[in-house]
Amino acid sequence: MHKAYIGMDIHKNFIQAAALDEKGNILQEKRFSSDLQGINNFIQNLNNSDIQAAIESTCTWYHIYEKLVSLGVNTTLVNVRRTKVIAESKIKTDPLDARNLAQCLRTGFIATSYIPTREIMELRDFMRHYISLGRDIARHKNKIQAILLRNGVKHNFSDLFGKSGMSFLRDLELRESEKYRLDSYLTVVETLQKEKKQTKKKIESLCKHNEQAMLLTSIPGISYVSAMIIITEIGDVNRFSHPKKLCNYAGLVQELFSQALIPTMERS
């Protein structure tokens, strides 16, 4: 059975790929669309039954990974920073990057990254959306604070963006341009806060149906949201050979974190 090793340099709308044989000879090099047809054509042209592929972790990697797996390709997600040949390469071109990925895969000198399941990816999307909403709210609140500073507006509200504070901000008399910006930012903040509240309810519901997440909520200070963030960012807890490695990865206090996760690891 002949083997083929593929390196894929993934971009937004296209893929630069290189396929090597067991001796490192180039079987095929091509730039093609990152859709299923483009990937399928490249794989089919190899006429190899044992194909391995290495792809970089970019913003579009997951759907490429799923397409390759659906075609029966054993696919590896590359940790570029820990793969020396790629990280220290001084010459960076798409064809060369693809060949380097294929060579590293062929020779075994490649650092891999964890590939979460589709279920975990779905949960991550919820959590990262929630976090993103929080950052957007903070950014627009800072813009509002800047308007108040520019206009010398002072207040005594402990929570400026609570019900009373929002009424105060709506009733402020400012220059037309500043008043327009303030009202616009207030509308954005109110909309984002509503979306964040709805997303939080969805996350709490998901947490209540997740055994590991509910174990984490038994630790004082860990909420439904915090538990889901930990669970989704860690993924499969059994990929860690020891609780200490898990705690180092998570950056949490070992004693507390282990109490919640060790029973689950022991049952698996």
3D architecture notes:
The chain is of the alpha/beta class and 268 residues long. It folds into two domains: 105 residues, Nucleotidyltransferase, domain 5 (2-Layer Sandwich); 91 residues. 56% of the residues lie in helices and 13% in strands. The chain has eleven helices and five strands; from the N terminus they run βββαβαβααααααααα. A five-stranded mixed sheet has the order 3-2-1-4-5.
Tell me the layout of helices and strands:
Elements: E1 3-10, E2 14-20, E3 26-33, H1 36-44, E4 50-56, H2 61-70, E5 74-78, H3 84-87, H4 94-107, H5 118-150, H6 163-170, H7 176-208, H8 211-216, H9 224-234, H10 243-250, H11 254-267
Parallel strand pairs: 1-4, 4-5
Antiparallel strand pairs: 1-2, 2-3
Summary, kept brief:
With 268 residues, the chain is an alpha/beta fold.
Q: How would you describe this structure in keywords?
A:
alpha/beta; Nucleotidyltransferase, domain 5; five-stranded mixed beta sheet; 5 strands; elongated
CATH homologous superfamily placement of the largest domain:
ATPase, nucleotide binding domain
Strand order of the largest sheet: 3-2-1-4-5
The proportion of strand residues reads 5-15%
**CATH first level of the largest domain: which class?**
Alpha Beta
Distance between the termini: 36 Å
Q: What is the overall number of helices?
A: 11
Write down the secondary-structure element order.
EEEHEHEHHHHHHHHH
Q: What Rg, in angstroms, do the CA atoms define?
A: 25 Å
Please state the structural category: alpha/beta
Task: Tell me the total number of β-strands.
Answer: 5
Regions with little confidence, pLDDT below 50 for 5+ residues: none
Average pLDDT reading: 87
Summarize the amount of helix as a percent range: 55-70%
Shape: elongated
Secondary-structure arrangement, i.e. CATH architecture of the largest domain: 2-Layer Sandwich
Largest sheet: 5 strands, mixed
Determine the CATH topology of the largest domain: Nucleotidyltransferase, domain 5
